[in-house]
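Friendly challenge for the regulars: who can give me the structure tokens for this chain first? No prize, just bragging rights.
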Amino acid sequence: TFFFWSQQWAKQHAASVVRGADPTADMRSGNFASLCTSGFAANGLCNDRDPITHAVIDQIYNPATGQPFADNMIDQSLLNANSLALLNALAPPPNNPSGGFLNFINLTPTINSTRDDEIRVDHNFGPKLRLMAEYLDERQTNGNSYDNFLGSPYATNKDPITTQNQLAQVQLTATLTPTMVNTTSVAMNNYVVSLGAAGIWQRSQVPDFNEVLPFNGFGSDRLPQIGFSGGWAPLGWAFTLPLNHASDLEDTLTDDWAWLRGNHYLQAGNQLVFGTKRQTAFSASNGQWFFSGQFTGNPIADYLLGDSATFTQTSTEARPYVHYPIESPYVQDRWKVSKRLTVTAGLRLEYLPATHAQKGYISIFDPARYDPAHAPIVNNDGSITPTANYDPQNGLIFNGVGGFPLNFSNAHAWDWAPSAGFAWDVFGDGKTALRGGYGITYNRVPTGTDCSYFCGINYPLVQSLTLIGAPFPNPTGGQSAPPAAPTLDSQDLHLHPAAMVQNYSLSLEHSFGNDWFVSIAGAGNASHHVGEYYNINQPLPDPPYDFNPLINSGTVFAYKYSPFLGYASITSNVSPGNIYWDALALSVRHPVGHNVFLSVA
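First reply, four minutes later:
Bragging rights claimed.
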């Protein structure tokens, strides 16, 4: 019996430099004169001009009157008190004037700590039976100095990340005969990550910030996520945080058998994997605001006046429990046909169905089941007006309901994966070798190209609202959410959950004269049914244009002109992708001294 236990600790202080564009003290008081570099005319209009059109630039305007703010000065009585309260609570004044536009810098180091444990036991029951058991445990904390997911440079809120990774295996190896071995193993891999929250990230922590959201579900008590055009640092709190105990567990049962019989080396086996992913789906229940500058000409001025370009919110957060099986039986033979030729051939059967969540938990959109007669009237601001025939679930289907499988489709769950290769001593003198091979494998990332996780925030389980030009910070004036066109994630019913990858290679190697080795090789792969994401509800063009010019102003809800009225974007998982890679390599190697080689490739 052999026993081993090792531990390793590490603590790292990593230098960090994070810069951002921070509104100045003058801007916070309504003074935007610094935008105009050429000064102002007597009437208060900025003298800056576009070099091509000669139009006035760097001028801000009063959205209520459409007239310029004289000298780019906004009367302080017009400033939104909530905007100022949140900005001053989260964004310290600029501290890096030499940085130009990026006038704020955060030099707080990132502190990471890690502990690794490895435990292993080996026991021989006899000369033909051996047991091995091992356990690996890794615990890590990343102490970020800012909200890494938001991308804000400020240290007023942060997202500490903790991970726990556990692997365990019990393996039994039996020598059945001097030429036959069987190995059976049971294994577990459990990866758990938590994205934490520290600092100011809840509404209650900013007493003077009074926001009333349309939805008040789980997570709506967080500060909103606020973005700006023009490169200004975002503000608030990322809608993805906090994320508690997101786990990926895989339990594996494997059996591998090998037999050396004459000129054949036979192998066969099977692998069973049972996977489970438990993770709260990222959902903007705290609300997302975006300020583009379309009202005043500057996004920060828009923010200080409370004039947003868009507002988006979901009603709550959801936590799908995603399950997926994998089965992979195989057989392979390496046959030494002669002293000069060895051939390898094998066949694997892959069971890789799309993953699935709890029964009836998620919905997807099927264009074939959408009826335009049941569509609502879509308004310019993103709200909808229901009609007499309006069906809020128009075109939606649910997993495990109405005859649909839990994963919506098992059409491409089984795949064949053959492989073949050879090695040939061309002239039998050991100086020239020709090798080649071809094989098919399949690649699938659970929840990566299917809808079992992302569709967990679809209607009707989670409602969503997008409004154009909503007033900050009360987008509906303190009222409940109006009927709106929800955003959907979806999945093609003919989805290939696993991409097929064909690999091929051919190489020729030859030894010349006094230890010169030359090789030429070609290799490549071709991938088919690669997963992609398409918005199948793109707004339709308005002839003679190949787009709709009305939506470019940002004042009209784009999906008022989409093919599936009643919905916003419908991002569908599809698998039409193809990827190709080919390479040709030539190399020469020659020893030029003791343990010294010259290589050219």
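Residues 352-465+479-600 form one domain. The helical segments are 25-28, 81-90, 299-305. Your move, everyone else.
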